Amino acid sequence: MTAVERSLDDLIRSVGKLETQLGAGLDIRRVRTDTDHLRESLTLLKQSVAAAPPAHRRAPDVEMVPISDAPYNSALWTDAQDEGLGSRNGHAP
């Protein structure tokens, strides 16, 4: 969180320098407004984290399914094609 705050402070200073160089046109005002919103959002985020620290979640257990190296029964592939819809005549219905 501290690193984000420092980066945002650097961004705000940089926008200030840019505003000094370019003047207070519409585009720079929009960027200034965006940086202000970022500051507000970060403040809200810090407050919510302080109020309810995130719970340490464990990744859900994943059931491993073994797959045999034995060849598949060729009857499984009857009427199948490598590409397309797999119809008997090779054309879409």
Key descriptive features of the protein:
mainly alpha; about 50% helix; elongated
What's the gist of this structure?
The chain has 93 residues and is an all-alpha fold. The chain has helices at residues 2-22, 26-51.
Description:
The chain has 93 residues and is mostly helical. The protein has a domain at 1-51. Helices cover 51% and strands 0% of the residues. The chain is built from two helices and no strands. The chain has helices spanning 2-22, 26-51.
Break the fold down into its secondary structure elements and pairings.
Layout: H1 2-22, H2 26-51
Helix pairs in contact: 1-2
Order of SSEs: HH
Q: Give the helix level as a range of percent.
A: 40-55%
Number of helices: 2
Query: Structural class of the secondary structure composition?
Result: mainly alpha
Largest sheet: none
The total strand number stands at 0
**Global morphology:** elongated
Strand content: under 5%
What's the end-to-end separation, in Å?
Answer: 58 Å
What radius of gyration results from the CA coordinates?
29 Å
Mean pLDDT: 82
Poorly predicted runs: none
